Amino acid sequence: MRHLLDIADLSRAQLEGILDDADGFVEVLGRPIPKVPALRGKTVTTAFFEPSTRTRLSFERAAKALSADTMTFAPGTSSLSKGESLKDTVLTLQAMGTDLMIIRHQAVGAARRVSEWLSVPVVNGGDGAHQHPTQALLDTLTVRRRFGHIEGLRVAIVGDIRHSRVARSDSQAFSTLGAHVTLVAPRTLLPVTTRDWPVEVSASLDKVLPDVDVVYLLRVQTERGGASVFPSLPEYVSRFGMTRERRARLKAGAVVMHPGPMNRGVEIADEVADDPDALVLEQVSMGVAVRMAVLFRLLGGEIDG
Amino acid sequence: MDGADVRRAIRRIAHEIVEHNRGTADLVVVGIHTRGVPLAVRLAEALAEAEGPVPVGELDITLYRDDLDRRPTHRVGTTRMPGSINDRVVVLVDDVLFTGRTVRAALDALADLGRPRRVQLAVLVDRGHRELPVRADYVGKNLPTAARERVSVKLVEIDGEDAVLIGDPS
């Protein structure tokens, strides 16, 4: 593994290898001194051309727990506003002494493009509505640690599939690991075609609810036009919102997940978000461990396979 | 060394540990991955027979290695301590003592987990060729080797048999 750009690039064995390593990092993060010297002397750069709090901070936390140094590129305060191109920006960051770059960009394929320009490993921190591989890794890690396995689980991904890189990455990762994935959304929030997706599709959350082990709620993404393709938020809530009533109809042991940030009262009700069976904060914690596993693999660990 | 030799060596080391520490109070036996772990379990069983039960831990030192850049394949293993190691006497256990670099890494890893009162080192085989100022407190067998020879320890728990083999580099 040279870069992490797309979940589809990873075999089942590679996915499981990353999750196995991440289990080890969960233990490291629980220690009195949650820091190991594995990446001492390495510099990890986050270049986020789109706003993000948790992903960027999570990567920084992961890098620091591995004793790497971090550089942060913030477009608002940079020469980007002077018209510097993406290519010149990332080459400049590499020339300063970057050993690995994490990039988030609104354009689909940006991270792959950057990986062709640079000689250091590149991690896709999100490219448009295309991919968010570390989100899929942290979600599968969270589920595997809760259930002990992923094979055979039923996962429903609910909401704005069309504009969601999380939906795409997660359905690939969960199905590669042997889960059955159902996308639940109104027609207008589904991609033009789901033919290439390893999933089933349903328009009724109420129908799939009693059978699933994991309900994965997506954020209604107003910034990507998510609100304009649905008549009204109350109607969205009535058909696809995870209300307390719907929560009660889940089978015993089923869990509710959300990538954050949550629109409380829209895709997820307050009581559901704060329920102990909601794994939202657990997902955030697992994010640090899984990103440590990715950084370690690209910088200190396995090179092939 | 065959299975009987390994058994005798572990029993002798257990007796030396008891003698040296005047019992097993505050003792924790910690195996270094991979083959130090089953050895630590066996050592703890021998200690239990001689004195009384001793807690066992396991230590993965992958993240503390000084050759991460040189050796391509690393998997992060399990580290698990049986409670706090603060003020305990930790006996680190490994199969082979060679350059001493693994022990150096294990000492660093241990320091991140707590502050033992004392750390001692038990190895099944000491094959010499140290690159760091490290020595073992308890040695199953001193095995003179050439630096380029390979020493492989096989254990029932992992390899299906107990044996210590010396071979040419493959």
Explain the overall architecture.
The complex is a heterodimer of chains A (305) and B (170). Chain A has 305 residues and is of the alpha/beta class. Chain A folds into 2 domains: 7-131 and 284-299, Aspartate/ornithine carbamoyltransferase (Rossmann fold, 3-Layer(aba) Sandwich); 133-279, 3-Layer(aba) Sandwich (Rossmann fold), CATH 3.40.50.1370. Chain A is 38% helix and 14% strand. Chain A is built from 11 helices and 9 strands. A 5-stranded parallel β-sheet of chain A has the order 7-6-5-8-9. A 4-stranded parallel β-sheet of chain A has the order 2-1-3-4, sandwiched between helices. The longest helix of chain A is centred in the last third of the chain and has 20 residues, at 280-299. Chain B is an alpha/beta fold and 170 residues long. Chain B has one domain (3-167): Rossmann fold (3-Layer(aba) Sandwich). In chain B, 30% of the residues lie in helices and 25% in strands. Chain B has helices at residues 3-21, 36-50, 101-113, 156-159, and strands at 27-32, 56-59, 89-97, 118-126, 138-142, 150-154, 163-167. In chain B, strands 2-1-3-4-5 form a 5-stranded parallel β-sheet. In chain B, strands 6-7 form a two-stranded antiparallel ribbon. In chain B, α3 (101-113) links the parallel β3 (89-97) and β4 (118-126). The A-B interface holds A 17, 20-21, 23-25, 27-28, 31-33, 35-38, 66, 293, 296, 300-305 and B 60, 62-65, 68-69, 72-80, 108-109, 112-114.
Number of strands of chain A: 9
Distance between the termini of chain A: 7 Å
Overall pLDDT of chain B, averaged? 94
Order of helices and strands of chain A: HEHEHEHEHEHEEHEHHEHH
What structural class do you assign from the helix and strand content of chain A? alpha/beta
Largest interface, counted with CB-CB under 8 A? A-B, 24 and 21 residues
End-to-end separation of chain B: 21 Å
Percent helix of chain B, as a range, is: 25-40%
**Rg estimate of chain A, integer Å:** 19 Å
**Cα Rg of chain B:** 15 Å
Read across the widest sheet of chain A, the strand sequence of neighbours is 7-6-5-8-9
CATH class of chain B: Alpha Beta
Uncertain parts of chain B: none
Query: Any low-confidence stretches of chain A, pLDDT <50, length ≥5?
Result: none
Please tally the β strands of chain B and state the result. Answer: 7
How would you sum up the global shape of chain A? globular
Shape of chain B: globular
In oligomeric terms, what are we looking at? heterodimer
